[in-house]
Design goal:
The complex is a heterodimer of chains A (635) and B (681).
Chain A (H helix, E strand, L loop, with lengths): L1 H8 L6 H37 L11 H5 L15 H46 L2 H6 L2 H51 L5 H36 L1 H6 L3 H64 L4 H11 L4 H43 L20 E8 L9 E8 L4 E5 L6 H7 L11 E3 L2 E2 L5 H7 E4 L10 H6 L9 H10 L3 H5 L18 H13 L5 E5 L7 H17 L1 E5 L3 H4 L4 E6 L2 E6 L1 H7 L2 H17 L1
Parallel strand pairs in A: 3-8, 3-9, 6-7, 7-8
Antiparallel strand pairs in A: 1-2, 1-4, 4-5, 9-10
Helix pairs in contact in A: 2-4, 2-6, 2-11, 4-6, 4-11, 6-11, 7-9, 9-10, 9-11, 15-17, 20-21
Chain B lengths: L3 H8 L9 H12 L2 H32 L6 H14 L2 H6 L2 H51 L2 H6 L2 H43 L1 H8 L1 H39 L1 H6 L3 H55 L4 H7 L4 H23 L1 H18 L21 E11 L2 E11 L4 E6 L5 H8 L7 E6 L2 E2 L5 H6 L1 E4 L8 E2 H6 L7 H11 L2 H6 L7 E2 L8 H14 L4 E5 L7 H15 L3 E5 L3 H6 L2 E6 L2 E6 L1 H7 L2 H15 L47
Parallel strand pairs in B: 3-10, 3-11, 6-9, 9-10
Antiparallel strand pairs in B: 1-2, 1-4, 4-5, 7-8, 11-12
Helix pairs in contact in B: 1-8, 3-4, 3-6, 3-8, 3-14, 6-8, 8-9, 8-14, 8-15, 9-12, 10-12, 12-14, 19-21, 21-22, 24-25
Classes of the chains: A alpha/beta (635), B alpha/beta (681).
Chain lengths: 635, 681
């Protein structure tokens, strides 16, 4: 636990400056705050001594205010018997605390928010770099939970947790000093219940945590039931099973309620129990402290009768271990001031536990190795020429998995076009993904211009390949910003971007929007149709003047006429680069220099359009079928 | 944006008016049901507030009584309370000091124990109330969602609905168990303190309480500033979250376009905004907090000043003189002092509960949005419960559209006789599935009518209608649970034997018996552990177990091995025997066996008749058949040939009027040309 705590606190190191300023301010706050009951103590001692002596100010001469301030302020002729002095002192002390409070409050939140901002930033940066294989396994939603809920838990600890932790530490060192000053015996006796508190807190915390987990598990079950039930809504409706579903759900929700109540039963105990612990101290203070006061009063009477001065009396009372009424009341005040931190301690512990788990989870992701990185000694390639060679490539997503691609060998000369067709799941997309190293091919299987793709710097590779993935993904930015992602850099030429949009046949659609190229996409803006999105994605890819263009079934959502127009426009672009194009439509692929048919990860047919038609295999059949379809739809 | 979770993040918008009274009233209505519990809670909370304000009184009384610093109201109250046990108030005063001390010690103990039990019970009681309300809302929400029509499920991703039922309801619970109650307690405490102060001494009370208006002004100013800052912070947070969510779900594109560095800059910018607004909000708090403490200190200072002066003035006086001069005892000063210290706590509490209330209100708004959704398809007044159908189904000039300008069915007419098997064929988007949806009344027709046993489906109660129709969907949905659970769903009245018999009948028993635990074997959701064929057989068994009058089946398109294919075909024959069956057919064998084939084309019934008749027509069916034939040639290893629907929605100008001739097996269906398009080629 201690090691873990130090590990967690290690995160604070770079932010030592604001933490230090905050801690100093906190220290002074606590000093001033623990001082204020002293003012009360003086006031009461002052009054009590006077009232005992029938209003003689001299009786209170031992009180510090009377010793250090002109006594005529407090006499019968002073303004309101000088009691305003206590007002001024008290407000001044607290106002000073306020100034310190402002500083620690601000510096702690600044440190914590900077810390979490950077932690989250590191997490975010790392997640972006993790390879597709990692993202296949981990849901984006889970990563988001880490970036939101878990970083928030960390922030709470680095802010409130650290603050209250130190605050408690300061209080527990300062308050007992004052209490001992009043009476060390009373302190010892009243704090006898104190050791019980950490014991009870930890016992209770354990049980609460167990039940809490139980409740969370049940909530998971309820959520899962709801999810499944909503997902299967059609079946439930079909069989008119709503009532039974509701019954089952009610049972689970009711169990949740029961568990939550069982948690509540002990959770509701926590706070009152702590207060009760302090109450035991209360009782001790009343009885023992009260008797110490009585003892002091007794002494005073005797010594006053013997003619001792009030200062002498005060000293004698102090020496005998007796206390004054002011001391008694102040002692109560201190006891209350300890109860806050005591309860706070429990809170700090739970904040710490939560942060510990959260940070651990975040670290797990941070520790995940970025699988795809630059080779140790990258090849000195700065410009891709467009030549692609795939040699006996066998690729598996996971070591034991069935190969997604088996023994594939393909060569594409620079500037040529290769088309890939084949049934769903035949490995077409996997093949395309290997070229920009979204997944890593085995060494010695994929070569660009004769250099193993794994030797080429990612920077070179990914800025010179233009890809249009199967699932179009545009960012919630303006259309122009989305297009600018293609060429990269800070200020791509907007004219060129618009030119590309024209080639991709999306310019007329964009110009039709009120804000044209400045139109925001996504939630806060316009939602493009599937076809429009695909065309923007095409424009984005060609805008970078790629050496290699990868088109993965990217015309599926546009109609035949638009497809023809796009292909006509792309023809010029495709002359300049090497193109790999995946499609289900014969019309898209028929003009390719070479067409390969994949099935189950293997190349089963290859050749030009006419060669493949002659072969009478899958491709020929697909052709026939699509012709029939065209005929039918034209009918 | 692929994940439902993100959709929810974007959905999170802070309300402009946090304390919308309509929303608040609606929320509180849920607690009204438990008015007795609420009453007890409020009472207990008040008692607890009473316990919380008692100690200052006790300490003051003790100072006066034990240390004999004067006679005062607190002292008198205690003396009178303890009087009956010791023989009168004066006897209490006359007790030896040490006995008085013990008395006070015990009083403290009793008080603290009482307040311990009250607080504990109260905490439990309130959580209980919160949990009950939560349960009610959750169940209402769940029930309501299930009462909504299919279109609702198409509009709302499952993740969003789950978040509403599971998590949003949870944040609403806080409103009941934490916020409302703390408010009651805080108000009760404040009121109690004021009453006590005034009772003891009106003038002094007024002086001490003069701090309150300043406090209120400070709080209002703070609230005004912090709310603006809070809202900005909240917005910045949503923006940051959606930015991150987008990057994470589009990480491939990010990598493909090497956008990492730019994103990191984006993070610094948006995250920096978030940081700044967070700090602004904290700064407002950092300023308010010291001001509030200083103000409360001023209250304490005023006690020291004015009460101190009053004490000094009263020193030589007798009790009566003191009262006349407005003088007080030291004990009263102590009481006042402790009240002034207590005063700030509830005020701070109220400010701190703000977050919870905002969260609860936002959640409530989202939940109520769903609760306000009306189902499209509801039971009509006078609808009857059907017992069993003989199974005649007819469409009479049915028009239907999901969206106003996209007609799906355009004047469809056909009739199915009891016990017949009808196959529906056509392209994707021709309207096949819609026909099924209308028979089950998942949607209501826009024009015309759908009848079962000669009666409009709207004249039956939904439950009875659907209970008598079994639908086997293309993609079989299996729930997590046992095989038994999956086959009888929630219907406990169906016995194990019935389930077993059904499985044996369709031939599913063979693979079930091989499973560990047989009918109690665990099924994963989606049934990933089963092959496509096995899932199909399970869905057949499920349909059979419910013994429907009408069977509706959307044949699976996935290819299965020859053996399973044969099993499914033989199961299908058994399943359709003796009951009206309407099948969206993808397999040639199914079509060939059908009594009648309905060829859907672009929302119309284009042709109908049996296989031979339709082939002879050389129309749409003929071409579809050719397509299927080529598919069969391609995958000769698959025993059951597939009849593949096409993804093509090309326009067709030709409509056909078909009169299927064989009236012996097929109802004569006349399809004239409803929208007057050219009939001739």
């Amino acid at each position: 636990m201690i090691r873990n705590l130090f590990h967690l606190l290690g995160y604070c190191k770079p932010y030592w400056r604001p933490y230090l300023i905050g801690t100093v301010a906190l220290f002074f706050t606590d000093i001033l705050d623990t001082f204020t009951p002293q003012i009360v103590r003086w006031t009461i001692d002052h009054l009590e001594a006077m009232s005992r002596d029938g209003g003689d100010l001299a009786a209170a001469a031992s009180v510090p205010t009377l010793r250090f301030l002109p006594s005529h302020w407090f006499g019968d002729h002073g303004f309101m018997h000088g009691m305003w002095v206590y007002f001024v002192l008290y407000v001044l002390a607290v106002a000073l605390t306020g100034v310190c409070r402002y500083f620690f409050s601000l510096y702690y939140s600044r440190a914590a928010v900077d810390l979490t901002h950077n932690l989250r930033g590191k997490f975010f940066g790392h997640v972006q770099k993790l390879s597709a294989r990692y993202h296949d396994k981990v849901k984006a939603g889970d990563l988001m939970t880490l970036a939101t809920a878990d970083t928030n838990a960390a922030r709470e600890f680095f802010w409130v947790g650290v603050l209250i932790g130190l605050d408690t530490l300061f209080y527990f060192t300062m308050v007992p000093i004052y209490m001992a000053d009043i009476s060390w015996r009373l302190l010892l006796v009243s704090l006898c219940t104190l050791p019980l508190i950490p014991f009870i807190v930890s016992r209770l915390a354990n049980r609460i945590e167990m039940r809490y987990e139980d409740v969370q598990d049940q909530l998971g079950i309820v959520a899962e039931k709801a999810r499944e039930s909503f997902a299967g809504a059609k079946v439930i409706k079909s069989f008119a099973q709503e009532e039974n579903e509701i019954k089952t759900f009610a049972r689970m929700a009711s169990l949740y309620k029961t568990k939550a109540l069982s948690l509540a039963r002990i959770q509701a105990l926590q706070q009152p129990l702590l207060v009760l612990m302090l109450a035991l101290a209360d009782m001790v203070v009343v009885i023992y402290g009260g008797s110490l006061v009585l003892q002091g009063m007794d002494m005073r009477e005797k010594m006053a009768a013997a003619g001792a001065s009030s200062v002498e009396i005060a000293a004698a009372i102090r020496d005998s271990g007796a206390i004054t009424v002011g001391g008694f009341v102040a002692f109560f005040s201190y006891l209350i001031r300890l109860s806050g931190p005591m309860v706070g301690l429990g809170w700090v512990i739970s904040l710490y536990q939560r942060a510990h788990i959260s940070v651990q989870r975040i670290e797990e992701v941070l520790d995940a190795k970025v699988e795809i990185t630059d080779a140790e000694k990258p090849a000195p390639v700065e410009k891709l020429g467009g030549g692609i060679e795939i040699r006996n490539l066998t690729f598996r997503f996971y070591p034991d998995a069935k190969p997604a691609l088996a023994d594939v060998s393909i060569t594409v000369q620079p500037g040529k076009t290769l088309a890939i067709v084949g049934p769903v799941g035949s490995g077409k997309t996997s093949l395309l993904n290997l070229i920009p190293r979204l997944y890593d091919p085995p060494a010695g299987s994929v070569f660009l211009d004769g250099v193993d793709v794994r030797e080429i710097k990612l920077d070179v590779l990914r800025t010179q390949i233009g890809a249009v993935p199967q699932e179009t993904f545009l960012f919630s930015e303006t259309i122009l910003q989305n297009l600018a992602l293609g060429p990269g850099g800070d200020n791509p030429d907007p004219q060129w971007l618009k030119q590309c949009a024209k080639i991709a046949q999306v310019d007329p659609d964009i110009v039709a929007f009120p804000k044209q190229y400045e139109t925001m996409l996504g939630e806060k803006g316009v939602n493009l149709s599937g076809g429009q999105k695909q065309r923007v994605a095409i424009a984005r890819a060609i805008a970078r003047k790629p050496a290699i263009l990868l088109l993965d079934d990217c015309l599926s959502a546009v109609d035949t006429q638009t497809e023809e127009a796009i292909l006509a426009g792309l023809k010029e672009v495709m002359k300049e680069c090497t193109t790999l194009i995946v499609s289900h439509r014969i019309s898209t692929v028929e003009h390719a220099d070479e067409i390969v048919v994949l099935n189950d990860g293997r190349v089963v047919e290859r050749g030009t359009h006419s060669e493949l038609l002659d072969k009478g295999g899958y491709y020929a059949e697909l052709h026939k079928k699509q012709q029939l379809e065209a005929e039918l739809s034209a009918s | 944006m692929s994940d439902d979770f993100e959709d929810d993040l974007l959905d999170e918008r802070i309300k402009t008016n946090v304390f919308d009274p309509v929303l608040l009233r609606r929320m509180l209505k849920y607690a009204v049901r438990y008015w007795r519990r609420v009453g007890v809670a409020v009472f207990m909370v008040t008692v607890s507030a009473g316990f919380a304000i008692a100690p200052p009184l006790l300490v003051g009384a003790m100072v006066d009584l034990v240390f004999k610093t004067g006679i005062s109201l607190p002292g008198n109250v205690i003396a009178n309370l303890a009087g009956p046990f010791t023989g009168g108030a004066d006897a209490v005063r006359a007790l030896p000091a040490s006995q008085k001390l013990v008395m006070f010690g015990l009083l403290f103990l009793v008080l603290r124990f009482c307040s311990f039990f009250v607080d504990w019970a109260n905490g439990y009681l309130l959580t209980g109330l919160g949990q009950r309300v939560l349960y009610d809302i959750r169940l209402e929400l769940f029930t309501h969602i299930h009462s909504l029509s299919l279109s609702f499920f198409h509009r709302n991703p499952v993740g969003r609905l789950v978040n509403r039922t599971a998590y949003d309801v949870g944040s609403m619970e806080q409103m009941f168990s934490v916020a409302v109650v703390t408010l009651v307690k805080d108000v009760a405490m404040l009121a109690g303190i004021i009453v006590m102060l005034v009772l003891i001494d009106v003038n002094l009370a007024l002086i001490v309480l003069s701090v309150i208006p300043f406090m209120i002004v400070a709080t209002l100013v703070f609230r005004h500033h912090s709310r603006g800052a809070y809202r900005k912070w909240y917005k910045a947070q949503s923006r940051l979250n959606s930015f991150m969510a987008e990057t994470m779900s589009g990480v491939r594109v990010v990598q493909l376009f090497h956008k990492e560095a730019r994103n990191q800059r984006g993070y610094d910018e948006i995250g920096g905004d978030f940081q700044r607004h967070f700090l602004t909000q904290r700064r407002a708090w950092a300023i308010f907090r010291p001001i509030a403490t200083t103000l409360s200190a001023a209250g304490i200072g005023l006690v020291l000043w004015f009460c101190g002066d009053a004490v000094v003035r009263g020193i030589p006086m007798t009790r009566l003189e003191m009262a006349a001069a407005g003088a007080i005892s030291v004990g009263v000063l102590v009481t006042y002092l402790q009240y002034a210290e207590l005063f700030f706590t509830p005020i701070r509490d109220i400010t701190e509960k703000f977050d919870i209330v905002v969260g609860a209100m936002t959640a409530a708004e989202r939940i109520f949005t769903i609760l306000d959704e009306k189902p499209d398809v509801v039971d009509q007044p006078g609808a009857v419960m059907s017992s069993r159908f003989s199974g005649a189904v007819a469409f009479e000039n049915v028009e239907f559209r999901y969206k106003p300008d996209e007609p799906i069915l355009r004047g469809v007419d056909f009739a199915v006789k009891p016990g017949q098997t009808v196959a529906i064929v056509g392209h994707t988007g021709a309207g096949k599935t819609t026909i099924i949806n209308l028979i089950c009344r998942f949607y209501d027709v826009n024009a015309g009518r759908v009848t079962v046993d000669g009666k409009d489906v709207r004249e039956y109660l939904l439950k009875g209608l659907r209970r008598n129709i079994a639908v086997v969907h293309q993609d079989v949905f299996l729930f997590a649970g046992s095989i038994l659970d999956n086959l009888r769903l929630g219907e406990e009245s169906i016995t194990h034997e019935q389930v077993k018999a059904a499985c044996e009948y369709v031939g599913a028993d063979k693979f079930i018996n091989r499973l560990e635990g047989k009918y109690n074997a665990k099924v994963e959701e989606g049934g990933k552990t089963f092959s496509a064929g096995e899932r199909q057989l399970l869905s057949f068994a499920r349909a059979l177990v419910f013994n429907p009058s009408i069977l509706i089946l959307d044949e699976a398109t996935s290819s299965i091995d020859t053996h399973t294919e044969e099993m499914i075909q033989s199961a299908l024959i058994k399943l359709t025997k003796g009951r009206t069956s309407i099948i969206i057919a993808h397999r040639l064998s199914t079509i060939q066996r059908a009594d009648n084939i309905l060829v859907m084309h672009k929302g119309k019934l284009a042709e109908s008749g049996n296989h031979q008749q339709l082939l002879a027509l050389r129309g749409i069916y003929y071409r579809l058949y050719q397509l299927q034939y080529s598919a069969m040639e391609r995958t000769p290893k698959a025993g059951g040939t597939r009849f593949v629907g096409m993804e093509n929605k090309g326009s067709s100008r030709r409509r056909r009027a078909v009169a299927a001739a064989d009236a012996g097996t097929v109802e004569v269906v006349k399809i004239t040309n409803p929208d007057g398009l050219d009939v001739a080629e």
